[in-house]
Specification:
heterodimer; A: 170 residues; 6 helices; 4 strands; elongated; B: 211 residues; alpha+beta; Beta Polymerase, domain 2; 2 domains; 5-stranded mixed beta sheet; 20% helix; binds iron/sulfur cluster
């Protein structure tokens, strides 16, 4: 995080002061604390994805409650479900439409590996189409597992060299 | 509930070429494919079998002739009985059957599915496109000569295929397919299992021994 706050209560002397930190730390803190998901709900796993957004599991605690159905406004595609070969190009196109920086979570056995669908119709893992950051096992995974994956993604984002990437990409 | 005896008797009187088809449940008839449309129209309009439950087809095997048999199920919502009709397609390479989408609009998608998965063409269908596989897919996957794992083909979208270098590949079967034991009351024993685990991607499937 930005700085350790050892104050027990509100301290007027700190307010308005300068905080010294690294650009990476600030950028990554901002990014990791507001990962807006793109719900790529394609099968049964999407039900657990809905569960994780609702009050009981409440993904809002991690700043990721703003599910965007427009890829332009999303940061993290959560592929929740079975990806058929017919659907695979559309998944890739939606991923291409998301603005950088972007991440992908493959939720469940189907998205990770084709799952139990060893058949002519099913893509055997969404990582053949898009780069995946976090895989979640389970059929379907519990909502807690998705929260765990989100926390893993957050810690991954916090290690990214964001400022140098910003400077070199321009 | 099965169709009342008077329905089947009247049907056979009207269509003398219909022969009774072995059936474990409801009355079933084999009849020439040319008569199917008239027979279904008769069942709908004069025998009160007003609900088309299903249209599908059977692939009797690569070497069988007739290879394809199209099946229709109709149900009477007033008399509560089913009737099943079956008709062999004349051609084994290009099976053709008449559409009944003019009698029941619901037949439209059933026939598209049968065309997609088994390659039976329905004559006079208003829009006979694939419904599950994508347009341009070269196979009919429920035919007996199509392997469950699939056959390598390009992805439906050329741009994405170039970008990702991905293609439709045969799925790794890993000793499968995995089959559940039906009728098993112990759920642990009923779990889907590979019935033959002696082969994987690395070990070829052993040649069948002649016994
Ligand atoms: S992993 Fe299981 S629950 Fe998830 S989409 Fe596949 S079959 Fe459904």
């Amino acid at each position: 995080m930005v700085s350790a706050n050892n104050e027990l209560a509100y301290n007027t002397k700190i307010e308005g002061d300068i905080v010294v930190t690294r650009a990476d730390a600030v950028i990554n803190w901002l990014r990791s604390s507001s990962v807006w998901p793109m719900p790529m709900g394609l099968a049964c796993c999407a039900i657990e994805l809905m569960g994780v957004a609702a009050a009981r599991f409440d993904i809002a605690r991690f700043g990721a409650e703003v599910f965007r159905f427009s890829p332009r406004q999303a940061d993290c595609m959560i592929v929740a479900g079975t990806v058929t070969y017919k659907m695979a190009p559309h998944v890739r196109r939606i991923y291409d439409q998301m603005a950088e920086p972007k991440w992908v979570i493959a939720m469940g056995a189907c998205a990770s590996s084709g799952g139990m669908y060893r058949s002519y119709a099913t893509l055997q893992g969404v990582d053949q189409i898009v780069p995946v950051d976090v895989y979640i096992s389970g059929c379907p995974p519990r909502p807690e597992a998705l929260l765990d994956a989100l926390m893993k993604l957050q810690s991954k984002i916090k290690k990214e060299p964001s400022s140098s990437a910003l400077l070199t990409s321009a | 509930m099965t169709a009342p005896a008077d329905v089947t008797a009247a049907f056979q009187a009207k269509f003398p070429q219909a022969t009774s088809r072995p059936s474990g449940d409801h009355p079933a008839f084999n009849l020439p494919v040319a008569e199917v449309h008239a027979a279904l129209k008769y069942l709908r309009d004069e025998a009160a079998h007003d609900f088309l439950v299903d249209v599908t087809a059977i692939d009797n095997g690569v070497d069988a002739s007739p290879r394809f048999t199209v099946i229709w199920h109709v149900y009477s919502t007033t008399r509560h009985g089913y009737v099943r009709l079956a008709a062999d397609c004349a051609s084994d390479e290009n099976p053709v059957a008449p559409t009944v989408s003019d009698l029941w609009p619901t037949a439209n998608w059933h026939e598209r599915e049968t065309y997609d998965l088994l390659g039976v063409k329905f004559e006079n269908h208003p829009d006979l496109r694939r419904i599950l596989m994508w347009e341009g897919y070269p196979y009919h996957p429920l035919r007996k000569d199509f392997p469950l794992a699939g056959i390598q083909t390009p992805l439906p979208d050329i741009e994405v295929a170039e970008l990702t270098k991905a293609s439709v590949k045969p799925a790794p079967m890993a000793g499968g397919p995995f089959v559940a034991s039906s009728g098993e009351m112990n759920l642990t024993d009923a779990e889907p299992r590979a019935k033959d685990e002696s082969w994987t991607e690395r070990h070829e499937k052993p040649a069948p021994t002649s016994e």
